[in-house]
Amino acid sequence: MRWLFNLSFRHKIPLWTSFLIGFSIFVVGAALMAHAYEDMKDAVVISADNLGHTLANTVAPTLLHDDVWRAFEIVRSPIRAESAHTPAQVDAVVVLGRDNTVFVSSHPDTLPMLSEAAALGPDWQRLDEYLRAPAGIKWPLVLEPAGSSYLYVALPITDKDAQLGHLVLRYAKSVFHPWFIDTLWQGLGLGLLVLAVLIPINWYWGGRMAKPLVDLAQRMGTMLEKPPEPLPPDMYPYHDELGQLFQAYDRMVLALRDKAALENEMVKSERLAAIGQLTAGIAHEINNPLAGLITAVDTLKLRQDLDPKARRHLELIDRGLTQIRDTVAALLVQTRVQARPLNQHDLEDIHTLIQPQVGKRRIRLDWSAAMPAELPAPASLVRQILINLLLNAVQAAAEGGHVSLWLARKDDSETCLSIVVRNDGALLSDEQLAHLFEPFASTRAGGHGLGLWVTYQIVTQLNGCITARNIDGQVEFVVNLPLGETPCSTASA
Q1: Does residue 214 lie in a domain region?
Q2: Does residue 440 sit in the same domain as residue 405?
Q3: Rounded to a whole number, what is the largest CA-CA distance in the chain?
Q4: Which has the closest alpha carbon to 438: 425, 427, 449?
Q5: Which of 335, 350, 375 is the last residue of a domain?
Q6: CA 427 to CA 78: how far, in whole Å?
Q7: Sheet containing 402-409, strands listed edge to edge, beginning at the edge strand earlier in sequence
Q8: For residue 97, what is the domain's CATH number?
Q9: Strand 141-143 and strand 150-159: pairing?
């Protein structure tokens, strides 16, 4: 039985309500049937009373003159009448003398004359007891012995206030059956009609009432894994106790979300504070030797005897050192870094720098960079963005896989530069996408999780936007950088 209480409310409420509806209809139907039975019995008693008075008045002279044959004809007349097919048809008529012996009966073979009434059976014995103690009896006497198939109606036979005997009318209860069954079928049909109307309505409203509770239970079941979603406002737009419960749940969800956001910001702040301290220390140690390296490269470039190949290498080293300096400055100072514009040489440098990693992993690299001679974007920072994204894509791609770069003005806009990097490595999960640009949130084994965070910091400082998604079985990173004061659209290229 316990399993019934463990059912979902969407089943339990309609089931219990259906049971109560059916039980109520059964009880009401049983009461109506009992009332109908009593009505039928009253109708029989009324009919018997009328017939009994007529017969008692008619048979009284025969008792006085001891005219048995005349009395027999009188008591047989109701049995032979055409009314024998009516529900109130009498089964037997018996005239008892003063000593409760049978004077005459309509069925002398089963109810013989001069027999003691008590000797005719248990029913007649019970009737004899009542008739021998007439004090307080209300005529007609109606007797329905327990377990008997008959109903007895008795009336006194008198002549000028002298009691001559009793007239007993016996009715078989079976004559009630057609009338009772007809009433039963009518009641059953009405009950089934009521059930046919109420049960579907009950299941509809029961399911509608239980659905918010079921949804609430499912949402609260995921509370430990993630903050639950609020309930739709149109799910239960009422203000009863159930509606107040849902409103309290929504308030709890908002409080949990605020708490989770606050905790997330606190974790980010602690991480950023640790990164800031670490970066400041590293930057201090880098800037001193870096300044010396840049000065040495500048000095070498002033020599007139350098061959063109060595000069190209020095220029590559100079741009790389400048990129390191500007990247460190971008991480330490939350202002726009003033640097030279981006040009084709920067893209060529990046292509050259990532070739060893591409060749080592046998990656197929699709390179599409459509840009003029220069773009008004800080070259060092854009170079760092491209290097971080491309190296991350090469490391994420499967060996012998595919990496692509697309760089151009977004939708041929003059004010927005768009960068799209794709790789065919493992797709990112929802959890990884949610924390992708946080420090130490690496997507691969052995990664430190700082490359994408540095990229995000640089893009944010340049008033741009960066997004990541899974598309067509690949992982795609999209960066939009403004080339002026007008911000870029956040839509992907």
Answers
A1: no
A2: yes
A3: 171
A4: 449
A5: 335
A6: 100
A7: 364-369, 402-409, 416-423, 474-482, 465-471
A8: 3.30.450.20
A9: antiparallel
What Rg do the C-alpha atoms of the chain give, in angstroms?
A: 53
pLDDT cut 90: percent of the chain above it: 17
Domain interval for residue 11: 2-180
8 Å CB contact between 166 and 96: yes
pLDDT in tens, 370-416: 877 788 888 888 988 998 899 889 988 988 899 999 998 877 667 88
**Whole-angstrom Cα distance, residue 127 to residue 107?**
18
pLDDT in tens, 111-156: 999 899 999 999 999 999 888 876 667 888 888 888 888 999 999 9
CA 323 vs CA 169, 279, 389, 393, 477: distances in Å: 124, 16, 15, 21, 22
The pLDDT value recorded for residue 85 is 45
Same structural domain, 329 and 379:
no
Both 386 and 441 in a single domain? Answer: yes
pTM for the model stands at: 0.42
Residue 20 pLDDT: 82
Whether 436 and 455 have beta carbons less than 8 Å apart is answered as no
Q: How many other β-carbons are positioned within 10 Å of the β-carbon of residue 276?
A: 12
Cβ–Cβ under 8 Å, residues 483 and 376: yes
Choose among 186, 178, 167, 187: nearest CA to 88: 178
Is residue 469 one of the residues assigned to a domain?
yes
* Domain count across the chain: 3
Specify whether 359 is located in the same domain as 308.
no
- d(CA 37, CA 202) in angstroms, rounded, equals 32
Asked if residue 166 and residue 103 are part of one domain, the reply reads yes
Q: What is the pLDDT of residues 277-318, one digit of tens each?
A: 666 667 656 766 776 677 777 777 777 777 888 878 888 888
The mean predicted confidence, pLDDT, of the chain is 81
Please state, in angstroms and rounded to a whole number, the distance separating the CA atoms of residues 24 and 22. Answer: 5
State which residues of the chain have pLDDT below 50.
Answer: 82-85, 333-337, 491-493
Residues composing the chain: 493
Would you call 283 helix, strand, or coil by DSSP?
A: helix
Question: Interior CA angle at 165 toward 162 and 167, to 5°?
Answer: 125
180, 214, 249 - which closes a domain: 180
The answer to whether residues 436 and 443 touch, using CB atoms and an 8 Å cutoff, is yes
**Short-list 443, 481, 442, 484, CA closest to 462:** 481
Residue 195 CB burial class (10 angstroms; 0-12, 13-18, ≥19): middle
